[in-house]
Amino acid sequence: MKRHLASFLLLGAMVGCSSGTALRDAGRDAQAGAGGSGTGGNAGTGGMAGGVGRVVVNPGTNHEHQLQPLSDGNMLKRGDVLRIETGGGGGYGHPFDRPSQSVLDDVLGGFVTAGAAQELYGVAIDEDTVDDTLTRKLRAKRPEVKAFHRHAYVDSLT
């Protein structure tokens, strides 16, 4: 059985990078299982939770579909592409403390979008520069840190 492996980078806007691999089995039908979970950040220091992974069959085609987490026995046909995306790790430290120039470098490098820079890091990007005036206004509205971060800062997990 001949396999073609293609590695690529998937970007976790909140906490860093995750990774993925695409596998193509050109030889025969197969079965696949999917697992995964998110990773927690260090919310006591303001760190946000990490992203979750996913498993996608035939990404970017009319036959694209995502496998359900913790599923087993998913049938793959000859020629299907299985993309496995791993979640990024949780963060350490409040995102608003990241230097605005570092956030700009992340945007220009394709690691986060300008929208994520503004929403998650409080940094306004105008084309390829930091808008310092708007960034100061955004960062003045810094979210309060609580005990946990699961899509928002919370004091308890219910």
Strand order of the largest sheet: 1-2-7-4-5
**C-alpha Rg, in Å?**
19 Å
Distance between the termini: 47 Å
Unreliable spans are 1-18
Class by alpha and beta content: alpha+beta
* Number of helices in the DSSP assignment: 3
Q: Share of helix among residues?
A: 10-25%
Summarize model confidence as the mean pLDDT.
76
Pattern of helices and strands: EEEEEEEHHEEHEE
Please indicate the percent range of residues in DSSP E strands (runs of 2 or more). 25-35%
Looking at the structure, what is the overall shape? flat
Q: Note the main sheet.
A: 5 strands, antiparallel
Q: How many separate domains?
A: 2
Number of strands: 11
Helix and strand arrangement:
Elements: E1 3-12, E2 16-25, E3 30-34, E4 54-57, E5 65-66, E6 71-76, E7 81-85, H1 100-108, H2 114-121, E8 125-126, E9 129-130, H3 132-139, E10 148-149, E11 153-154
Antiparallel strand pairs: 1-2, 2-7, 3-6, 4-5, 4-7, 8-9, 10-11
Structure in words:
It is a single chain. This protein has helices at 100-108, 114-121, 132-139, and strands spanning 3-12, 16-25, 30-34, 54-57, 65-66, 71-76, 81-85, 125-126, 129-130, 148-149, 153-154. The protein is of the alpha+beta class. The protein folds into 2 domains: 3-85, no CATH class; 95-141, no CATH class. Strands 1-2-7-4-5 form a 5-stranded antiparallel β-sheet, with no helix packed on it. Strands 3-6 form a two-stranded antiparallel ribbon. A hairpin with a 7-residue loop joins strand 4 and strand 5. The radius of gyration is 19 Å and the shape is flat. 25% of the residues are buried. The model is unreliable at 1-18 (pLDDT under 50).
